[in-house]
User: Fold this.
Amino acid sequence: MSLNALIVWGGWDGHEPRQVAEICEKVLVNHGFNVEVSDTLDAFLNYDALMKLNLIVPIWTMGRITGEQQKGVLEAVKAGVGLAGCHGGMCDSFRDATEWQFMTGGQWVAHPGNDGTNYRVRVTNTNHFITQGTSDFDVCSEQYYLHTDPSNNVLAVTKFPVAEGPHTSNGEFDMPVVWTRMWGKGRVFYSSLGHHADIVAQPDPLRLMTRGMLWAALAEGQA
Assistant:
């Protein structure tokens, strides 16, 4: 079975999009994908090419997307192309693009404590393909506070608050870290881990990202 993926990277350099793209490309190639890598959102304008993909991996923090660029991804995923991403590369991509946020299932709003915050990721569904082989683990990075869609299928969470801030008076609660959802016929995967490439490359985040991409592409058999 031929598997085709498109990785589109860019936006804010602080999230090391090129390096994260290189990690994802290597993973996908090792799992049998033909991978195209682009550093322009115009890659989303070729609708016919998008429809031939199994997976789209956006790695683009902030910036702006045009209506036509966004439409290509929305329509391709709705038709059954998988979508997978991490950290700000997918859920802080285009802050004024509400349809993008609707499709991805969340939007970053804060990271109390900033980089270097120590927190625990707790796997809440160990039976899902994505989380198989992953137990609870600790991370020292940004802890993402997200506005999330209530229809998301949450697979892992982290407890807030850890760092002090005006949010602490709301008390303790679980914030989603890893989730899946559907957009039409397309599978969508997201992990909030991955502030820098070295976090993406750590064993637990990388395992989740790898299996999340395979799941989104309907390629679980390639694991």
About this structure: Helices lie at 17-30, 47-50, 67-79, 88-91, 98-104, 197-200, 203-216.
